[in-house]
Amino acid sequence: MLRDSFTGPVLVGIAVLTLSAVLYAAGFRRMYQRARASRSIVEQSLVRRLKGPVRILIPLIGLEIAVSQMTMSAQLKSVALHVGVLLLIGTAAWLVVKMTYVFEDVILDHYRLDIKDNLKSRRMHTQIQVFRRVAVAVVIVFAIGLSLLTFSQVRALGAGLLASAGIIGIIAGVAAKPTTTNVIAGLQIAISQPIRIDDVVVVDGHWGRVEEIALTYVVVKIWDLRRLILPISYLITTPFENWTRSSSEILGWVHLEVDYTAPIDEIRTHFEQIVAASPNWDGKVARLQVTNCGTTTIQLRALMSSLDSGMSWDLQCEVREKLIGYLQKEHPGVLPHLRAETSLSFENARFEK
Protein backbone atom coordinates (compact mmCIF):
# COMPACT_ATOMS: atom_id res chain seq x y z
CA MET A 1 0.00 0.00 0.00
CA LEU A 2 2.84 2.37 0.91
CA ARG A 3 4.58 1.45 -2.32
CA ASP A 4 1.50 2.31 -4.33
CA SER A 5 1.19 5.68 -2.59
CA PHE A 6 4.66 6.63 -3.77
CA THR A 7 4.42 5.17 -7.26
CA GLY A 8 1.85 7.72 -8.43
CA PRO A 9 3.76 10.86 -7.34
CA VAL A 10 7.03 9.49 -8.73
CA LEU A 11 5.45 8.79 -12.12
CA VAL A 12 3.82 12.21 -12.17
CA GLY A 13 7.15 13.82 -11.28
CA ILE A 14 8.95 11.97 -14.06
CA ALA A 15 6.25 12.95 -16.54
CA VAL A 16 6.46 16.63 -15.50
CA LEU A 17 10.25 16.68 -15.75
CA THR A 18 10.16 15.02 -19.17
CA LEU A 19 7.57 17.46 -20.47
CA SER A 20 9.51 20.42 -19.05
CA ALA A 21 12.73 19.23 -20.65
CA VAL A 22 10.99 18.90 -24.03
CA LEU A 23 9.40 22.35 -23.76
CA TYR A 24 12.70 23.90 -22.66
CA ALA A 25 14.71 22.28 -25.44
CA ALA A 26 12.20 23.20 -28.13
CA GLY A 27 11.68 26.73 -26.89
CA PHE A 28 15.36 27.60 -26.44
CA ARG A 29 16.37 25.96 -29.69
CA ARG A 30 13.90 28.20 -31.51
CA MET A 31 15.02 31.28 -29.57
CA TYR A 32 18.68 30.49 -30.27
CA GLN A 33 18.08 30.11 -33.99
CA ARG A 34 16.10 33.33 -34.11
CA ALA A 35 18.74 35.25 -32.13
CA ARG A 36 21.50 33.91 -34.34
CA ALA A 37 19.63 34.90 -37.49
CA SER A 38 18.64 38.39 -36.32
CA ARG A 39 21.92 39.13 -34.50
CA SER A 40 19.94 41.19 -32.02
CA ILE A 41 21.90 41.93 -28.84
CA VAL A 42 18.66 41.70 -26.82
CA GLU A 43 17.75 38.22 -28.06
CA GLN A 44 21.32 36.95 -27.88
CA SER A 45 21.74 38.20 -24.32
CA LEU A 46 18.39 36.72 -23.25
CA VAL A 47 19.32 33.30 -24.61
CA ARG A 48 22.82 33.38 -23.10
CA ARG A 49 21.91 34.78 -19.70
CA LEU A 50 18.53 33.15 -19.00
CA LYS A 51 19.43 29.66 -20.16
CA GLY A 52 20.40 28.42 -16.68
CA PRO A 53 17.56 29.76 -14.49
CA VAL A 54 14.80 28.97 -17.03
CA ARG A 55 16.10 25.38 -17.29
CA ILE A 56 15.32 24.98 -13.58
CA LEU A 57 12.32 27.29 -13.25
CA ILE A 58 10.09 25.50 -15.79
CA PRO A 59 10.24 22.03 -14.16
CA LEU A 60 9.94 23.59 -10.69
CA ILE A 61 6.68 25.27 -11.62
CA GLY A 62 5.40 22.05 -13.14
CA LEU A 63 6.38 20.01 -10.09
CA GLU A 64 4.78 22.53 -7.72
CA ILE A 65 1.49 22.34 -9.62
CA ALA A 66 1.67 18.55 -9.82
CA VAL A 67 2.41 18.15 -6.09
CA SER A 68 -0.52 20.36 -5.17
CA GLN A 69 -2.85 18.04 -7.10
CA MET A 70 -1.39 14.77 -5.81
CA THR A 71 -3.03 12.57 -3.21
CA MET A 72 -0.60 12.04 -0.33
CA SER A 73 -0.32 12.62 3.39
CA ALA A 74 -0.88 16.21 4.48
CA GLN A 75 2.51 16.42 6.23
CA LEU A 76 4.45 15.11 3.23
CA LYS A 77 2.59 17.43 0.84
CA SER A 78 3.26 20.41 3.11
CA VAL A 79 6.99 19.66 3.23
CA ALA A 80 7.15 19.10 -0.54
CA LEU A 81 5.28 22.33 -1.29
CA HIS A 82 7.47 24.30 1.15
CA VAL A 83 10.67 23.00 -0.41
CA GLY A 84 9.26 23.83 -3.83
CA VAL A 85 8.46 27.39 -2.76
CA LEU A 86 11.99 27.89 -1.44
CA LEU A 87 13.46 26.58 -4.69
CA LEU A 88 11.11 28.81 -6.69
CA ILE A 89 12.17 31.87 -4.70
CA GLY A 90 15.85 31.09 -5.21
CA THR A 91 15.42 30.39 -8.93
CA ALA A 92 13.29 33.50 -9.43
CA ALA A 93 15.97 35.57 -7.71
CA TRP A 94 18.58 33.99 -9.98
CA LEU A 95 16.40 34.89 -12.98
CA VAL A 96 16.09 38.53 -11.84
CA VAL A 97 19.86 38.71 -11.31
CA LYS A 98 20.43 37.41 -14.83
CA MET A 99 17.97 40.02 -16.14
CA THR A 100 20.20 42.73 -14.70
CA TYR A 101 23.04 41.30 -16.78
CA VAL A 102 20.79 41.40 -19.87
CA PHE A 103 20.06 45.04 -19.16
CA GLU A 104 23.79 45.69 -18.78
CA ASP A 105 24.59 43.92 -22.06
CA VAL A 106 21.98 45.89 -24.00
CA ILE A 107 23.02 49.27 -22.63
CA LEU A 108 26.78 48.76 -22.89
CA ASP A 109 26.53 47.42 -26.43
CA HIS A 110 25.94 51.03 -27.52
CA TYR A 111 28.99 52.29 -25.60
CA ARG A 112 32.13 50.54 -26.81
CA LEU A 113 35.51 51.02 -25.14
CA ASP A 114 37.60 50.13 -28.19
CA ILE A 115 37.24 53.55 -29.81
CA LYS A 116 39.52 56.56 -29.62
CA ASP A 117 37.20 59.01 -27.85
CA ASN A 118 35.63 56.66 -25.30
CA LEU A 119 35.02 59.12 -22.45
CA LYS A 120 31.22 58.77 -22.58
CA SER A 121 31.52 54.99 -22.89
CA ARG A 122 33.78 54.73 -19.84
CA ARG A 123 31.36 56.87 -17.84
CA MET A 124 28.42 54.65 -18.78
CA HIS A 125 30.33 51.39 -18.13
CA THR A 126 31.23 52.58 -14.63
CA GLN A 127 27.70 53.61 -13.69
CA ILE A 128 25.97 50.54 -15.13
CA GLN A 129 28.37 48.05 -13.50
CA VAL A 130 28.15 49.64 -10.06
CA PHE A 131 24.36 49.98 -10.14
CA ARG A 132 24.03 46.42 -11.43
CA ARG A 133 26.03 45.14 -8.46
CA VAL A 134 23.84 47.14 -6.08
CA ALA A 135 20.71 45.70 -7.70
CA VAL A 136 22.08 42.16 -7.40
CA ALA A 137 22.81 42.69 -3.70
CA VAL A 138 19.27 44.01 -3.13
CA VAL A 139 17.72 41.04 -4.95
CA ILE A 140 19.75 38.55 -2.90
CA VAL A 141 18.81 40.18 0.40
CA PHE A 142 15.15 40.34 -0.62
CA ALA A 143 15.15 36.66 -1.66
CA ILE A 144 16.72 35.60 1.65
CA GLY A 145 14.18 37.63 3.60
CA LEU A 146 11.28 36.24 1.57
CA SER A 147 12.55 32.68 2.10
CA LEU A 148 12.76 33.19 5.86
CA LEU A 149 9.18 34.47 5.95
CA THR A 150 7.94 31.12 4.62
CA PHE A 151 8.85 29.56 7.98
CA SER A 152 6.09 29.97 10.56
CA GLN A 153 8.65 30.06 13.39
CA VAL A 154 10.32 33.11 11.87
CA ARG A 155 7.01 34.93 11.48
CA ALA A 156 6.16 34.12 15.11
CA LEU A 157 9.42 35.68 16.23
CA GLY A 158 8.81 38.82 14.19
CA ALA A 159 7.53 40.90 17.10
CA GLY A 160 10.51 40.02 19.28
CA LEU A 161 12.92 40.77 16.45
CA LEU A 162 11.33 44.16 15.83
CA ALA A 163 11.59 44.99 19.53
CA SER A 164 15.33 44.36 19.51
CA ALA A 165 15.94 45.84 16.04
CA GLY A 166 17.42 49.04 17.47
CA ILE A 167 20.14 47.23 19.42
CA ILE A 168 20.84 44.78 16.58
CA GLY A 169 21.03 47.66 14.11
CA ILE A 170 23.62 49.47 16.22
CA ILE A 171 25.73 46.33 16.63
CA ALA A 172 25.48 45.45 12.94
CA GLY A 173 26.31 49.02 11.96
CA VAL A 174 29.49 49.03 14.04
CA ALA A 175 30.54 45.57 12.86
CA ALA A 176 29.90 46.32 9.20
CA LYS A 177 31.29 49.85 9.21
CA PRO A 178 34.23 49.15 6.83
CA THR A 179 31.97 47.35 4.36
CA THR A 180 29.27 50.02 4.60
CA THR A 181 31.86 52.74 4.06
CA ASN A 182 33.16 51.03 0.94
CA VAL A 183 29.65 50.46 -0.45
CA ILE A 184 28.76 54.12 0.05
CA ALA A 185 32.07 55.10 -1.53
CA GLY A 186 31.21 52.85 -4.48
CA LEU A 187 27.92 54.67 -4.98
CA GLN A 188 29.76 58.00 -4.76
CA ILE A 189 32.16 56.88 -7.49
CA ALA A 190 29.25 55.73 -9.68
CA ILE A 191 27.55 59.14 -9.36
CA SER A 192 30.44 61.63 -9.21
CA GLN A 193 32.88 59.44 -11.20
CA PRO A 194 36.36 60.57 -10.15
CA ILE A 195 37.44 57.35 -11.90
CA ARG A 196 35.84 55.25 -14.61
CA ILE A 197 36.42 51.89 -16.25
CA ASP A 198 39.56 52.01 -18.47
CA ASP A 199 40.80 55.28 -16.92
CA VAL A 200 44.58 55.71 -16.85
CA VAL A 201 45.61 56.42 -13.26
CA VAL A 202 48.71 56.72 -11.11
CA VAL A 203 47.99 55.39 -7.62
CA ASP A 204 50.68 55.18 -4.97
CA GLY A 205 53.36 55.47 -7.64
CA HIS A 206 51.83 52.73 -9.85
CA TRP A 207 50.74 53.53 -13.42
CA GLY A 208 47.89 51.47 -14.80
CA ARG A 209 44.32 51.29 -16.06
CA VAL A 210 41.14 50.81 -14.05
CA GLU A 211 40.05 47.28 -14.92
CA GLU A 212 37.13 46.75 -12.54
CA ILE A 213 35.07 48.80 -10.10
CA ALA A 214 33.20 46.61 -7.61
CA LEU A 215 31.05 47.68 -4.67
CA THR A 216 33.90 47.54 -2.16
CA TYR A 217 37.15 47.54 -4.17
CA VAL A 218 38.81 48.74 -7.37
CA VAL A 219 41.17 46.68 -9.56
CA VAL A 220 43.94 48.60 -11.33
CA LYS A 221 45.81 46.71 -14.05
CA ILE A 222 49.42 47.91 -13.78
CA TRP A 223 51.58 48.27 -16.88
CA ASP A 224 53.54 45.09 -16.04
CA LEU A 225 50.23 43.09 -15.89
CA ARG A 226 50.09 42.96 -12.10
CA ARG A 227 46.77 43.86 -10.44
CA LEU A 228 46.58 46.46 -7.70
CA ILE A 229 43.54 45.84 -5.47
CA LEU A 230 42.42 48.96 -3.60
CA PRO A 231 39.55 49.47 -1.12
CA ILE A 232 37.17 51.78 -2.88
CA SER A 233 37.18 54.16 0.09
CA TYR A 234 40.93 54.63 -0.47
CA LEU A 235 40.26 56.42 -3.76
CA ILE A 236 37.77 58.74 -2.07
CA THR A 237 40.12 59.82 0.72
CA THR A 238 43.58 59.65 -0.94
CA PRO A 239 44.87 61.88 -3.77
CA PHE A 240 45.72 60.10 -7.03
CA GLU A 241 46.37 61.04 -10.66
CA ASN A 242 43.75 60.47 -13.36
CA TRP A 243 45.22 61.03 -16.81
CA THR A 244 41.91 60.53 -18.65
CA ARG A 245 39.50 62.40 -16.38
CA SER A 246 38.11 64.67 -19.10
CA SER A 247 39.97 63.48 -22.19
CA SER A 248 42.38 60.75 -23.25
CA GLU A 249 44.68 63.31 -24.92
CA ILE A 250 47.93 63.86 -23.07
CA LEU A 251 51.20 65.76 -23.33
CA GLY A 252 54.50 63.91 -23.12
CA TRP A 253 57.97 65.33 -22.63
CA VAL A 254 61.62 64.39 -22.98
CA HIS A 255 64.50 66.09 -21.12
CA LEU A 256 68.00 66.23 -22.58
CA GLU A 257 71.20 67.62 -21.05
CA VAL A 258 73.51 69.18 -23.67
CA ASP A 259 76.55 71.43 -23.75
CA TYR A 260 76.28 75.21 -24.02
CA THR A 261 77.67 75.00 -27.55
CA ALA A 262 74.70 72.91 -28.79
CA PRO A 263 72.97 74.30 -31.96
CA ILE A 264 69.46 74.71 -30.56
CA ASP A 265 67.77 75.63 -33.84
CA GLU A 266 69.16 72.57 -35.66
CA ILE A 267 68.13 70.27 -32.82
CA ARG A 268 64.65 71.81 -32.81
CA THR A 269 64.28 71.31 -36.56
CA HIS A 270 65.32 67.66 -36.33
CA PHE A 271 62.94 67.12 -33.40
CA GLU A 272 60.02 68.49 -35.43
CA GLN A 273 60.92 66.13 -38.28
CA ILE A 274 60.97 63.14 -35.92
CA VAL A 275 57.58 64.01 -34.47
CA ALA A 276 55.97 64.74 -37.84
CA ALA A 277 57.01 61.32 -39.14
CA SER A 278 55.73 59.42 -36.10
CA PRO A 279 52.26 57.76 -36.16
CA ASN A 280 52.02 58.34 -32.40
CA TRP A 281 51.77 62.16 -32.76
CA ASP A 282 48.32 63.72 -33.03
CA GLY A 283 49.55 66.78 -34.97
CA LYS A 284 48.78 69.35 -32.28
CA VAL A 285 51.74 70.14 -30.00
CA ALA A 286 55.45 69.79 -30.84
CA ARG A 287 57.78 72.18 -29.08
CA LEU A 288 61.44 72.15 -28.02
CA GLN A 289 62.68 74.73 -25.52
CA VAL A 290 65.60 75.43 -23.19
CA THR A 291 64.10 75.04 -19.74
CA ASN A 292 67.12 75.25 -17.44
CA CYS A 293 70.76 76.35 -17.33
CA GLY A 294 73.28 74.56 -15.15
CA THR A 295 76.95 75.17 -14.43
CA THR A 296 78.16 72.94 -17.28
CA THR A 297 75.05 72.02 -19.31
CA ILE A 298 71.69 73.33 -20.42
CA GLN A 299 68.44 71.39 -20.29
CA LEU A 300 66.23 70.93 -23.35
CA ARG A 301 62.60 69.90 -23.00
CA ALA A 302 60.82 68.37 -25.98
CA LEU A 303 57.04 68.61 -25.56
CA MET A 304 54.64 66.66 -27.81
CA SER A 305 51.00 65.58 -27.72
CA SER A 306 49.31 62.22 -28.38
CA LEU A 307 45.81 60.81 -28.40
CA ASP A 308 46.33 58.63 -25.33
CA SER A 309 48.92 57.66 -22.73
CA GLY A 310 50.08 54.53 -24.56
CA MET A 311 50.87 56.41 -27.75
CA SER A 312 52.46 59.19 -25.70
CA TRP A 313 54.84 56.75 -24.01
CA ASP A 314 55.88 55.26 -27.35
CA LEU A 315 56.40 58.74 -28.81
CA GLN A 316 58.56 59.84 -25.86
CA CYS A 317 60.81 56.79 -26.23
CA GLU A 318 61.04 57.31 -29.99
CA VAL A 319 61.98 61.00 -29.68
CA ARG A 320 64.51 60.28 -26.92
CA GLU A 321 66.25 57.54 -28.90
CA LYS A 322 66.35 59.43 -32.20
CA LEU A 323 67.53 62.72 -30.69
CA ILE A 324 70.37 60.97 -28.87
CA GLY A 325 71.32 59.16 -32.07
CA TYR A 326 71.24 62.44 -34.02
CA LEU A 327 73.49 64.20 -31.50
CA GLN A 328 75.94 61.28 -31.39
CA LYS A 329 76.21 61.27 -35.18
CA GLU A 330 76.04 64.97 -36.11
CA HIS A 331 77.12 66.86 -32.97
CA PRO A 332 79.03 64.53 -30.64
CA GLY A 333 80.79 67.49 -29.06
CA VAL A 334 77.59 68.89 -27.53
CA LEU A 335 76.92 65.83 -25.41
CA PRO A 336 77.66 66.41 -21.72
CA HIS A 337 81.35 66.23 -20.93
CA LEU A 338 83.76 67.58 -18.35
CA ARG A 339 86.02 70.58 -19.05
CA ALA A 340 89.43 71.08 -17.51
CA GLU A 341 91.17 74.42 -17.98
CA THR A 342 94.80 75.02 -16.96
CA SER A 343 96.96 78.13 -17.20
CA LEU A 344 100.74 78.34 -16.75
CA SER A 345 102.43 81.53 -15.72
CA PHE A 346 106.01 81.88 -16.89
CA GLU A 347 106.68 84.14 -13.97
CA ASN A 348 105.72 81.49 -11.45
CA ALA A 349 107.11 78.53 -13.34
CA ARG A 350 110.35 77.23 -11.97
CA PHE A 351 112.55 74.80 -13.74
CA GLU A 352 115.06 72.86 -11.77
CA LYS A 353 118.38 72.54 -13.36
Fold and architecture overview:
The strands form 2 sheets. Strands 4-3-2-1-5 form a 5-stranded antiparallel sheet. The chain folds into 3 domains: 2-110, no CATH class; 134-246, SH3 type barrels (Roll); 250-334, Alpha-Beta Plaits (2-Layer Sandwich), CATH 3.30.70.100. It is of the alpha+beta class and 353 residues long. It has 11 helices and 8 strands. Helix 1 packs antiparallel against helix 2 (41-69) and helix 4 (119-149) runs antiparallel to helix 8 (177-192). It is elongated. The protein has helices at residues 2-38, 41-69, 74-108, 119-149, 152-156, 158-163, 165-175, 177-192, 232-237, 264-276, 309-330, and strands at 200-203, 206-213, 217-222, 227-231, 241-242, 250-259, 286-293, 297-306.
List keywords for this structure.
alpha+beta, SH3 type barrels, three-stranded antiparallel β-sheet, 15% strand, elongated, Alpha-Beta Plaits, 353 residues
> How are the strands of the largest sheet arranged?
4-3-2-1-5
* Principal-axes shape call: elongated
Number of strands: 8
SS strand fraction = 15-25%
Share of helix, binned: 55-70%
Structural class: alpha+beta
- CATH fold category name of the largest domain: SH3 type barrels
CATH class of the largest domain: Mainly Beta
The number of helices is 11
Biggest sheet statistics: 5 strands, antiparallel
Stretches where pLDDT is under 50 for at least 5 consecutive residues are 161-168, 170-176
End-to-end Cα distance, whole Å, is 139 Å
Number of domains: 3
Write down the Rg. Answer: 35 Å
The residue-averaged pLDDT reads 77
Succession of helices and strands: HHHHHHHHEEEEHEEHEEH
Q: What would you say the CATH architecture of the largest domain is?
A: Roll
